[in-house]
Amino acid sequence: MANPANVGCLLANNQGLCIGARGKASDKSAGIIVAISEQAAKLDPNCNAPVVSLEVGDK
Question: Are the CB atoms for 10 and 30 separated by under 8 Å?
Fold first, then answer.
């Protein structure tokens, strides 16, 4: 969140439950974010903690 380009951050467990949300991140999107990260992990099986960055419109 220290980066001015970040408008929100969401942390979720592997079951899709929200652990924490800051900024404009919605805790209601935790499940879909986990599903996206599971797909991202398949792209690089050696990475155990994929980071998903979403960009929308002007953000």
Answer: yes
Segment 36-51, tens digit of pLDDT:
888 888 888 887 777 7
List, in sequence order, every beta strand (DSSP E) within the chain. 8-12, 18-23
Full-model pTM: 0.70
Determine the straight-line distance between the first and last CA of the chain, rounded to whole angstroms.
14
Give residue-wise pLDDT tens across range 16-35: 999 999 998 889 989 998 89
Fold of 8-42: Beta-Lactamase (3.30.450)
Q: Three-state DSSP class for 37?
A: helix
- CA atoms of 35 and 49, how far apart (whole Å): 13
Count of other CB atoms within 10 angstroms of residue 29: 17
